[in-house]
C-alpha cells in the first residue's frame, strides 16, 4: 500500500459519497432552506428595525448554521452502517482516519460551503452593517469545518444506536457553544470598530486542530460502533 493508493481511496470515497448524496437532493436542500427560512422569518418576529437586527444578525446566522448542521447528521454514517459499507471501510488496507477525513470533507462541501456562499444574502436580510460582512465570512470559513468535524464524531459514536438523533443533538450542542461565542465575538468586535483578527485567528487555529484530530476520533468511534 503506497501513499498514492491511499489518496486514490480518499478521492474514491469522496466521489462515491457525493454521488450518493446527489441522488437524495433533499438532504442537500433541507439545511439550506432551513437557514433561509430562519433568516427570512426572524425579522418578522423581532421587527424590521436595522439597529436590532444588525446587533443580533451574527447570532441568528450562527444559531441557524448550528441547528442546520444537526439536520440529517444522524444519516452521515447510518446508511453505510446498514448496508455494510462502514464495515468494509474498517477492513480496508487504507488508513480509516483518511477515509473518515474524506467523509468530513464531503459533509463540509454540502453543508458548510453553501452556507459560506449564502452568507452575504443572510447578512443583507438581517441588515448586518457592511463593515462586518468580511468578518462574518471569515468566521464562517474558519468555523464551519469545525461543525462538520464535530458532527462526524458524534454521528460515528451514535451510528449503531438505532434512533440516536436526540442523543446526537445532546452530545453536539454543548460542543458548539464555544464556536458560537468566538464567532459572535469576532463580528461584534468588527461592529464596534475594534480588532476582530484575534478571534478569527483563534477560530482558524481551532479549526486546524479539530481537522487534524477529528479523523482519528471518527475512525476510533467507527471501530467501536462496528465491533
Topology:
Elements: H1 3-23, H2 25-46, H3 50-70, H4 78-82, H5 85-91, H6 96-125, H7 133-158, H8 165-192, H9 197-226
Helix pairs in contact: 1-6, 2-3, 2-6, 3-6, 3-7, 3-8, 6-7, 6-9, 7-8, 7-9, 8-9
Outline of the structure:
The chain has helices at about 5-25, 25-45, 50-70, 80, 85-90, 95-125, 135-160, 165-190, 195-225. By secondary structure, it is mainly alpha-helical.
What this model shows, in words?
By secondary structure, the protein is mainly alpha-helical. The chain has one domain (3-226). It is 84% helix and 0% strand. The model has no long low-confidence stretch (mean pLDDT 83).
Number of helices: 9
> Residue ranges: pLDDT <50 for 5 or more in a row?
none
Q: Strand fraction band?
A: under 5%
Q: What structural category characterises the helix and strand content?
A: mainly alpha
Number of domains: 1
Estimate the global geometry from the Cα principal axes. Answer: elongated
What sequence of helices (H) and strands (E) makes up the elements?
HHHHHHHHH
Distance between the termini: 24 Å
Q: Compute the gyration radius: what is it?
A: 18 Å
Largest sheet: none
Number of strands: 0
Round the mean pLDDT to the nearest integer and report it: 83
Portion of residues in helices? over 70%
Protein name: Heme exporter protein B
Function: Required for the export of heme to the periplasm for the biogenesis of c-type cytochromes.
Pfam family, one: CcmB
Subcellular location: Cell inner membrane
Amino acid at each position: 500500500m503506497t501513499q498514492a493508493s491511499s489518496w486514490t481511496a480518499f478521492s474514491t470515497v469522496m466521489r462515491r459519497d457525493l454521488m450518493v448524496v446527489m441522488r437524495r437532493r433533499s438532504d442537500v436542500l433541507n439545511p439550506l432552506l432551513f437557514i433561509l427560512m430562519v433568516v427570512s422569518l426572524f425579522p418578522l418576529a423581532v421587527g424590521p428595525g436595522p439597529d436590532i437586527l444588525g446587533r443580533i444578525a451574527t447570532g441568528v446566522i450562527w444559531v441557524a448554521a448550528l441547528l442546520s448542521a444537526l439536520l440529517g447528521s444522524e444519516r452521515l454514517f447510518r446508511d453505510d452502517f446498514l448496508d455494510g459499507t462502514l464495515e468494509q471501510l474498517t477492513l480496508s488496507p487504507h488508513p480509516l482516519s483518511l477515509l473518515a477525513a474524506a467523509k468530513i470533507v464531503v459533509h463540509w462541501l454540502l453543508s458548510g460551503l453553501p452556507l459560506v456562499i449564502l452568507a452575504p444574502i443572510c447578512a443583507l436580510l438581517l441588515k448586518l452593517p457592511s463593515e462586518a460582512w468580511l468578518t462574518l465570512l471569515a468566521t464562517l470559513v474558519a468555523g464551519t469545518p469545525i461543525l462538520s468535524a464535530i458532527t462526524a464524531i458524534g454521528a460515528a459514536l451514535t451510528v449503531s444506536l438505532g434512533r440516536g438523533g436526540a442523543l446526537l443533538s445532546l452530545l453536539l450542542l454543548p460542543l458548539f457553544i464555544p464556536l458560537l461565542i468566538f464567532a459572535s465575538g469576532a463580528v461584534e468586535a468588527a461592529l464596534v470598530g475594534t480588532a476582530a483578527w484575534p478571534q478569527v485567528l483563534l477560530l482558524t487555529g481551532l479549526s486546524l486542530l479539530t481537522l487534524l484530530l477529528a479523523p482519528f476520533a471518527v475512525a476510533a468511534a467507527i471501530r467501536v460502533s462496528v465491533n
